[in-house]
Design brief:
By secondary structure, the protein is an all-alpha fold. It has 16 helices and two strands. A two-stranded antiparallel ribbon has the order 1-2.
Length: 371
């Protein structure tokens, strides 16, 4: 298990249940037994290491190759920082301040590794390295667009392929760093590798088409529809397929549509719940936009932040009941091996996202004195 530096619960109210939820039991079985698909994972109960765990999910799987992830993240960071300006793109604002640069680099390295190994734990060593690179590139882009409209490495890559997407046309890459990452993905998996890259680029396009600002939502469902797109659906789908070494076609995804909607909703709102204090701090200190499910509930219900957090936690709790029920229904549907592996992969992502969020210094810092 990768060492953790902190843990926190943004709500502070325990939600517990003694009921066994059969659809999630494969995670619990993985603590003491070999479970197919989790060969590259360490599986454990977060409560055993003191992490608050207010969820129906009984355990979390973590990729064993976190040390390899740390090495490749540091190497990529060093390459980006030392590259010529046209190669590195815009960097997070903290990189221009000698007092903040080192701490910001450490934060990005830690979070990119933690996100990849916890959310997509089934990866072998090679694919774990690719996922760490992908998360580092996306996190750096995300940090940049919070404060500027200048282009990042991924923006430059998106510009490189515009008008060159037709089959048979060789892309004239200007950004060698992203080009090499792309070639590594394609070499590792010629089918899913391109989908992962395209998913990253489509997410970047979404972030540019929907720059943070003042947005109003008529309902929580209205916000959820926006938020799911903001999370990068295509990228997340490709990441599950790449790390689980499967391919699920669009037609094969159709029976999983209800489960997928529940999964993306949980993924999005859990991220909102744990990142709210960080985003609130950024709004107060830097004037950053606060677009978050907690804030949406505050406005819609005229509620306090504390009440909105409790309500969002309860909403997540209910989503887990629905996910368990939908998985039970699908177990009688006659899914293929790849479809069922994808379905189970979604559960692994949700458990990993909760563990990542609970132990993420990036999210915990606003509530930790002295940091």
């Amino acid at each position: 298990m990768r060492p953790i530096t902190c843990s926190f619960d943004p709500v502070g109210i325990p939600f517990t249940s003694d009921t066994k939820y059969e659809s999630f039991e494969f995670l619990k079985d993985g603590i003491h037994n070999d479970v197919p698909g989790l060969e590259n994972c360490d599986v454990f109960d977060p409560r055993s290491v003191g992490v608050p765990w207010p969820t129906l999910l009984p355990a979390v799987a973590q990729c064993k190759y976190w040390r390899e992830g740390e090495e490749v993240a540091e190497a990529l960071m060093n390459r980006i920082v030392s590259a010529a300006p046209k190669e590195q793109g815009s960097l997070p604002a903290e990189f221009t301040d000698s007092r903040l640069k080192e701490a910001k680099q450490r934060e990005l390295l830690d979070t990119s590794v933690a996100a990849a190994i916890n959310m997509f734990p089934a990866a072998n060593a090679t694919r774990a390295r690719l996922m760490v690179k992908a998360t580092l590139l996306t996190f750096m882009h995300d940090d940049v667009i919070e404060s500027t409209e200048q282009s990042t490495i991924i923006d430059d890559a998106l510009a490189d392929i515009v008008g060159q997407e037709e089959e048979g046309i060789e892309i004239s890459w200007k950004n060698s760093i992203f080009k090499e990452f792309t070639m590594e993905c394609i070499e590792e998996d010629p089918v899913v590798g391109p989908l992962l890259v395209k998913g990253m680029l489509s997410w970047v396009q979404h972030t540019r088409d929907n720059l943070p600002g003042s947005m109003a939502f008529k309902s929580l469902d209205d916000y959820i529809n926006y938020r799911i797109r903001d999370l990068g659906v295509d990228f997340c789908n490709a990441a599950i397929m790449l790390t689980c070494e499967i391919f699920v076609s669009p037609s094969e995804m159709e029976p999983l549509a209800t489960l997928h909607r529940l999964y993306m909703t949980h993924f999005s709102l859990a991220n909102d719940l744990y990142s709210y204090d960080k985003e609130l701090y950024a709004m107060k200190k830097h004037g950053a936009a606060l677009i978050n499910g907690v804030r949406v509930l505050e406005i819609l219900l005229n509620a306090t932040p504390r009440a909105a957090k409790v309500l969002l936690r309860a909403y997540l709790w209910d989503l887990e009941f629905q996910i368990n029920e939908e998985l039970a229904r699908l177990s009688d549907y006659g899914l293929s091996h790849s479809q069922w592996r994808f379905a189970r992969g979604m559960v692994e992502v949700l458990a990993g996202n909760l563990f990542y969020s609970s132990t993420c210094l990036r999210y915990a810092k606003p509530s930790l004195k002295g940091i």
